[in-house]
Amino acid sequence: MSTVNVIDESSALADGFARRMADLAKCLGADERGVLWAERAAHAMSRATALGHVCMPLGALARRDGASFSEVRDALLASGIACTVRTDSADLLPLVIDENGRLYLARYFDYERRLAQALMERARVARLEVSEEMLAQHSERIARFFGPPADNDIDWQRVAALAALAGRLTIVSGGPGTGKTTTVVGVLACLLDSDPGLRIALAAPTGKAAQRMQEALIERADKLPPELAARLPRTSFTLQRLLGVQADGGFRHHRDNPLPYDVIVVDEASMIDVALAAHLLEAVAPTSRLVMLGDKDQLAAVEAGAVFAELSANPSFSASAVARMAAALSVDAKRFNVAPPKVKLEPPQLDLFAATPDEDDGYAVLFDTWSEPETQTEADPPLTDCVVWLARNYRFGLDSDIGRLSIAIRDGNASAALSSLDVTDAIHEARDTHDAVLFDDAHPTLNDRVLTRLARGFAPYAEALSVLLDSEPASQAAEAQLFDALNRFRILCATRKGPRGVDEVNARIAAKVRERAGIALAMGAQWFAGRPVIVTRNDYALGLFNGDIGIALPGADGALRVAFRMADGTLRYVSPAALPPHDTAFALTVHKSQGSEFEHAALVLPGAFVRVLSRELVYTAITRARRRVEIFGSAEIFKQAVDAPTRRDSGLAARMQRLT
Which H or E run includes 565? Predict the structure, then answer.
């Protein structure tokens, strides 16, 4: 769905919700002023949540229309459709105004409050007491399963392992190549060595991310003693499947029926929205460990909230934890560098203008993304001893083109990011000695020369496909290897619609790949042998999940079926007619690429700056590439994206602080 279509749909939903709230206020006897503000506030909050905000500053809405905060607050409370914070969730009215003047839709206030409560219960009262004997055992196991330290610096993988062994909640943030999976394998080995009967669950927000996590653990299992490797879980779940989604949208597992696992490891946690996070935290038993892995600098969830970024924003350790970790790692506590530098957030200027008919995309944002500053306190951060940043990158060193580029983007340094790129004209060849290239292409459409260059990335796939189709019959092993050829390269787009969006790029690249491999359309206007597809909606009956990648291949009777590679390397086949909603997958949106890695990735930027472009989107796209990344777009638009961080309004951090 295009950005404009999403905007149109969210605008229509906001209009309808606002009308219903105005009608309700009238029925409840509100005066004209109350009805007016009920309609305005309902519309603003509906639009805000569509943009990923959990709440918005009520003061911003008031200032937009030249009113005072107290005037708007009093009018809303008198309208009958808004309330202040109430203890019982069932007593909440459609709109909620919290203690700090944030405005919420009731369900999002409830999710945020429940999530904060569940997090603080886990962080505050469910931590394990670590005796000297237990500390010695932790130290011995970490030395055994993590090996000797590489140097005299703090090894943050070991710090994360100690935090996970000592606590019930561990949040580990690190970019690609920083060793998150290695850390988890070591933690699980330590725990299984202590308790061979440990029940472990692996999960991720999407099927693709869950499968990649499972594959990564299997790859690293051969470094463990065989008896421990055999006890690692051999399946992984989407979070919805783990929680047991039911027909009414609820979940089988919750606070009163917790998950039956001792350890739950959740990968790609940056993709989790506030609603799913609340359900997950409430479903973890009080005595179980929860380890959440992610990258705080990646794109946040599509739905409301940036939960992982908030939870991992402030790593901090208590004095007792520092002493314990320093002893276990044989490091002088006085020089123990507790955490990498904190992120300093600067409030942007509020952008308070209403949509006008002559806007280019028919839409303008009501407000930017900054809440009023919270009162500072001397209390420890709410998640003290729970958060670890993995700082060392084992894949991209500082002498790596992609490494320098990703760090510059992460830090919001557009000039340094451009300096890390080999910038060339789109009609010229890039130097083979440079692994990060920007083809400066400001055209609103992709010309044939650029498309040919993009299609060239799929040449190994087209050749492998041609060989496979010429063999009689093709073995399942040969078909499985076709996935490796496909995953060497992928095109990533910022948008779905438009001349430089996923739909258009997929159609044009598919035609070039078919031409190169000598393949005709087999059925309908889309299906052909070798067509890669990505599932876009979970289908629990078929066992296919959002993000799963399949390839259409002919069976023994010549009819096409779609092959999906499982975590153990085997294939399963599904009829094209039985597939859940899906798209062609030569090109993916950056959002859909989360949880994936490719040898070589190409990012196609739109011809003009659009709101979907952000620092996190570019960073996420760049870090999908292991060896080489190419960017097709204007250098100016690239700079604008790096200079545009995503910030989402939320009260989660303040709500947790209040509970400490």
Answer: strand 560-565
- Coil/strand/helix, residue 444: coil
**Of 561, 569, 564, nearest to 543 (Cα)?**
564
- Closest residue by Cα to residue 264 from 246, 275, 279, 250: 279
Strands in 367-427 per DSSP E: 387-389, 422-425
Q: Which residue has the higher pLDDT, 374 or 402?
A: 402
Per mean pLDDT, which range of 325-329, 530-534, 653-657 is the poorest? 325-329
Q: What was the pLDDT predicted at 145?
A: 84
Question: What mean pLDDT is predicted for residues 124-143?
Answer: 73
Question: Which residues are CB-contacts of 345 (< 8 A; sequence separation ≥ 6)?
Answer: 647
- The pLDDT tens digits for 200-214 are 999 998 877 887 888
Distance CA 502, CA 492 (A): 8
Which run of H or E residues covers position 399?
none
The closest alpha carbon to 221, from 234, 210, 212, belongs to 234
> Residues near 174 by Cβ (< 8 Å), separated by ≥ 6?
156, 180, 293, 295, 389, 390, 391
Neighbours of 132 (CB within 10 A): 9
Q: Say which residue the tokens 């029940």 belong to.
A: 199
CA distance 632 to 634: 7
Give the Cα separation of 16 and 176 in Å (integer): 42
On whether the CB atoms of residues 349 and 359 are closer than 8 A, the answer is: no
In angstroms, what CA-CA distances link 515 with 65, 136, 454, 518, 602?
A: 58, 64, 14, 5, 21
CA distance 660 to 658: 6
